[in-house]
Amino acid sequence: MRALLRQRDFLFFWASRWTAVLGVQIMSVALGWHVYDIARRTMGVKESAFMVSMIGLVSFVPVLFLALPAGETADRHNRRRILLFCYSGEITIAGLLTLAAFFNRETIPLLLGAAVMFGIARAFFAPANTALGPMLVPRELLPRAIAWNSLAWQTASIIGPAIGGLLIVVSLSAPYAASFCLYLVAMGCILMVRGNAQPQVQPGSRWALMKEGLSYVWNNKIVFGAISLDLAAVILGGATALLPVFARDVLHVDSWGFGILRAAPAVGAASVAVYLAANPIRSRAGLIMFASVALFGVGTIAFGLSNLLWLSVAALVLLGGADMVSVYVRQTLIQLATPDHMRGRVATVSSLFIGASNELGEFESGVVARFLGPVGAAVFGGVGALAVTGLWAWMFPQLRKADRLV
Fold first, then answer.
1. From CA 170, how far away is CA 176, in angstroms rounded?
2. How many angstroms separate the CA atoms of 120 and 61, rounded?
3. 352 pLDDT above the threshold of 70
4. To the nearest whole number, what is the mean pLDDT of the chain?
5. How far apart (Å, rounded) are the C-alpha atoms in residues 288 and 290?
6. What is the spatial distance between Cα 376 and Cα 379, in angstroms, rounded to a whole number?
7. Residues 127, 69: contact at Cβ < 8 Å?
8. I need a surface site. Which of 116, 170, 177, 227 has the fewest CB within 10 A?
């Protein structure tokens, strides 16, 4: 760990990641609460829950269409410059939302439009960010660097929702203004990265390079199995996207309680990430990943059935910790198995699947909630995650038998 802390460029990269994720989390809380608040003025609970789920859908559509070009871009151009471009877009969007909320000009179409623009920025951000990290550390430090990157995400995810909930109480423009400032800091940190960020460009047309990346993921069953497992499990188990609904109309808590619920999965994930940063998984990685996905499903079911705040928080902590183990194993397997010149393209396929699991999971939960209600949607998703675990363990024996991560 001391060796990792001596990597100057990685420390600035880590700080940039942490502040950017903090800004994303604060803005995500604000968008979800804001859309639900506006919708409830004229709609019922089920219809309003569906409107919240639209945030995930509209932010995923740009990722779907831009993912392959974005991955090829990350393998051809300077990855640091791509991140700076993405930060510039996020700063602009956060600034516009701050002004709109301050002058009471916010509408659901405006908020959904902002989600679309964030989706465009994220389509290019994810592969460049994922591919840049391994360039800044020696290979032997990569598993610990991945754990610390996950820790950056999770700690910011703990603090961000709580801050977002508090800022919403102050004013609806405050969380957007805070995100604006955090994106500026993230851009400043990435400007301090001086190491090589230019990948070794491979010969061939853009289409040939994109096709090569897809072919690699498809033929490497460990990589494909790990990515698709996350896609299927989180799409079905994405009921946490309905947290605004559970907070207001199931648990009957205010925006501060909503912030606590949003932070709970990250508390579990960060606790596990701290442990993994010091004690990396060294054997039986595949079995551990499948067990963690099953535990994620159990936590989702418990959350859906709970009508007590403390029990809901405990279930969210459990599923967050389980998800962290799955993320850690998946990312480490993919990074170690992928050569540097293909990391951007493989990362973009991974980010496309992750984006699909998160955003389409939100949309799926909203659609199911439209017919079964929020509680039914959560239980349905948890049971689905358990079923996926068993099916993927049978379909991908290579992944199940994956052993060492070093």
1. 12
2. 9
3. no
4. 79
5. 6
6. 5
7. no
8. 170
Q: Which of 128, 123, 351, 161 is nearest to 270 (CA)?
A: 161
Non-local (6+) Cβ contacts of 257 within 8 A are 165, 247, 251, 309
Looking at the chain, how many residues does it have? 406
Q: Tell me how far apart the alpha carbons of residues 244 and 238 are, in angstroms, rounded to a whole number.
A: 13
Residue type (1 letter), 244:
P
| CA atoms within a 13 Å half-sphere pointing along the CA-CB vector of 172 | 20
* pTM for this entry: 0.66
pLDDT at 311: 92
Three-state secondary structure readout of the chain: CHHHHCCHHHHHHHHHHHHHHHHHHHHHHHHHHHHHHHHCCCCCHHHHHHHHHHHHHHHHHHHHHHHHHHHHHHCCCCHHHHHHHHHHHHHHHHHHHHHHHHCCCCCHHHHHHHHHHHHHHHHHHHHHHHHHHHHHCCHHHHHHHHHHHHHHHHHHHHHHHHHHHHHHHHCCCHHHHHHHHHHHHHHHHHHCCCCCCCCCCCCCCHHHHHHHHHHHHHHCHHHHHHHHHHHHHHHHCCHHHHHHHHHHHHCCCCHHHHHHHHHHHHHHHHHHHHHHHHCCCCCCHHHHHHHHHHHHHHHHHHHHHCCCHHHHHHHHHHHHHHHHHHHHHHHHHHHHHCCHHHHHHHHHHHHHHHHHHHHHHHHHHHHHHHHHHHHHHHHHHHHHHHHHHHHHHHHCHHHHCCCCCC
| Separation CA 238–CA 184 (nearest Å) | 31
Q: What pLDDT, in 10s, does the model give residues 118-158?
A: 888 888 888 888 778 777 777 777 777 777 777 777 677 66
